[in-house]
Design goal:
2 copies of one chain form a homodimer. Chain A has 12 helices and 12 strands. In chain A, the strands form 3 sheets. In chain A, strands 2-3-4-11-5-6-7 form a 7-stranded mixed beta sheet, with helices on both faces. In chain A, strands 9-8-10 form a 3-stranded antiparallel beta sheet. Helix content of chain A is about 40%, strand content about 20%. In chain A, a hairpin with a 2-residue loop joins strand 2 and strand 3. The first copy, chain A, is globular. The two termini of chain A are about 25 Å apart. By secondary structure, chain A is α+β, with helices and mostly antiparallel strands. Chain A folds into 2 domains: about 300 residues, Ribosomal Protein S8, Chain: A, domain 1 (2-Layer Sandwich), CATH 3.30.1370.60; about 30 residues, no CATH class. At the A-B interface, helix 5, strand 4, strand 6, strand 7 and helix 9 of A face helix 5, strand 4, strand 6, strand 7 and helix 9 of B.
Chain lengths: ~350, ~350
């Protein structure tokens, strides 16, 4: 795995924003894209962090990502925004859609954006948190390349199809962000790199046989999480997004893991105004506190609330710095120097 | 378990509708409530079928269910309907909300109803299917009594918090309906009745110890499905519904499993107009066919699509009749005769 070094969030942010700007990304868009990657690092999700940047720069170079556009927005109905991303950076198109939806909410109460033809939107929790910071409930779903097999099947036919839900409370917001696969392909790759066996039930090989060999699994498919139920949820996301965004279904999706194809997945964002409900928000917070202090299976591991772990890791990383593989840091620095 | 007899769907429907009418339920409401229970029987979900009827009649008798109201609807925003169910029958309040939302959709594109103070809404798939039959995407979530423990916890703190999603396609609609518990409390009860051991990981006893003893599990809590991810989803439903409907959180919920308390859970319905998209609907159907014919782990069990199994069971039950415990049938008939 090579050496890992600690870099301050500030210096990493400067490096990434600078690189994006050199590659022609306007400063506000560069700020958004860099923040998305760095927030993933801070929360301990390096698979969605700065390791994505060199590939993104290549996509900009080859025209697969247009650093200047926010996409073309079209209101299909009073509360439904259709977005042709025009190859925009993922967070740029999605945050522009959120900015466009928010003013509709006082009137309609909820609103939805369906986006196709934009680049990878990265860690969904970031958007859920952005919605909650505005006092809104945010639901984000997205599709990906085919990596997950159906329950009872053995071929990669579904995306990892993540779901994020952000709900404001009287304290920190509830932030759920989960992929509907049992594990991420990133985790399979890192097991392969370290030569570690996979857990039982994580994956099948190219012939469809259950395997604990990470190398074999890379050519195969990941199991859905939670058996038939998780499969059903991942499939619902697959269909919802394709139906609403007009994007491809998993077997035809490319462009979030390569530097050679346009990104033809889709993203759907729903925002809901929870209404004037400070009493309800306080009840949610009190309930979450009851959960945190409820009896734990292992007294050393208290019951956790989705979002808590990420926030704790973020605080530590802001204090101690972000762990980055030295090779990756060198690659980014050399890109900057040779630009 | 006693004897099981087969009853035709028509005669069961007549019996249930007649009983409801004798108990003062207006004929259209009786038709809806009976259809909901019988559709659960037809699809092989007897825990949400006619076994619920005697208790519902008791709730009507004692004023916990008002057979005549559809609830009080209030548009909080152009696309958000708040409903005080006024103790309405669950399907009556929810279908009235669906009827009220649908006309808003051509203008707003999506709309939501949040309902509190209505009775049990039963099998969610029924509503998802009703939405899909109107050419709409339907998302329904609901809360229940505390039956499920948090991931890493051992106390029943969450409801089974089901999620249903209906998506129209060019063929039969995609109908997902899942509870966020690993199993239903109904299944625990039926294992207890038969003296069968539970599967590993299904439940804990009252002291929080993992157990395979169904009797002990009845006093304990059910595991969330899919580990931390399923727990997160169930918790998201818990918070979303309480926030939007103003209903109770699980530890304070009663009234869907007893005949003594008002039902203070909540239900949320979101309808989305998928737009003029016959080409997209055809793509979804083609993709679902690809999934059905994709390589199966066990060649004797082809890959299934959520909703397929229920439809098949329904066809068979319409032809062969519905399996009903004789004791339950006798109870219903005697209620009818002695009314």
């Amino acid at each position: 795995m090579g050496l890992v070094v600690q870099v301050s969030e500030t210096s990493l942010r400067g490096l990434c924003t600078g690189l994006l700007e050199v590659w022609g990304v306007p400063s506000e868009a560069a700020r958004l894209q860099a923040e998305l990657l760095i927030e993933a690092e801070l929360r301990g999700l390096p698979s969605h962090g700065v390791m994505r940047l060199p590939r993104l720069l290549k996509r900009i170079e080859s025209g697969l990502a247009d650093p200047e556009t926010k996409g073309r927005q079209h209101w299909r109905a009073e509360a439904v925004l259709e977005v042709d991303g025009l190859r925009a950076l993922g967070p740029v198109a999605l945050m522009a859609a959120m900015d466009a939806l928010a003013p509709a909410l006082p009137q309609t109460g909820l609103a939805m954006a369906a986006i196709h033809n934009s680049n990878h939107i990265g860690m969904l929790a970031w958007y859920a948190e952005a919605a909650a910071e505005r006092g809104l409930i945010g639901i984000i779903v997205s599709t990906t390349e085919a990596l997950v097999h159906p329950y009872g099947g053995t071929q990669a036919m579904l995306g990892t199809n993540p779901i994020a839900i952000g709900i404001p409370t009287a304290d920190a917001p509830f932030i759920l962000d989960l992929a509907t696969g049992q594990v991420s392909m990133g985790k399979i790759h890192s097991h392969a790199l370290r030569g570690e066996p996979l857990d039982e039930g994580w994956a099948v090989d190219a012939a469809g046989r259950p395997t604990r060999d990470a190398e074999a699994a890379r050519q195969g498919a990941i199991a859905p999480f939670g058996g038939a139920k998780g499969y059903g949820l991942g499939l619902a996301v697959e269909l919802l997004v394709a139906m609403l965004a007009g994007s491809e279904l998993a077997p035809g999706i490319h462009g979030t893991l390569d530097a050679t194809h346009p990104a033809n997945k889709g993203d759907v964002l729903i925002l809901i105004d929870p209404g004037a409900s400070s009493e309800r928000a306080a009840r949610l917070s009190a309930y979450l506190d009851m959960l945190r202090s409820s009896r734990a299976l292992d007294p050393a591991s208290p019951v956790a609330i989705p979002g808590d772990g990420g926030r704790k890791r973020r605080q530590a990383a802001l204090r101690d710095g972000v762990d980055i593989p030295e090779a990756l840091l060198n690659e980014l620095r050399s890109l900057r120097e040779n630009a």
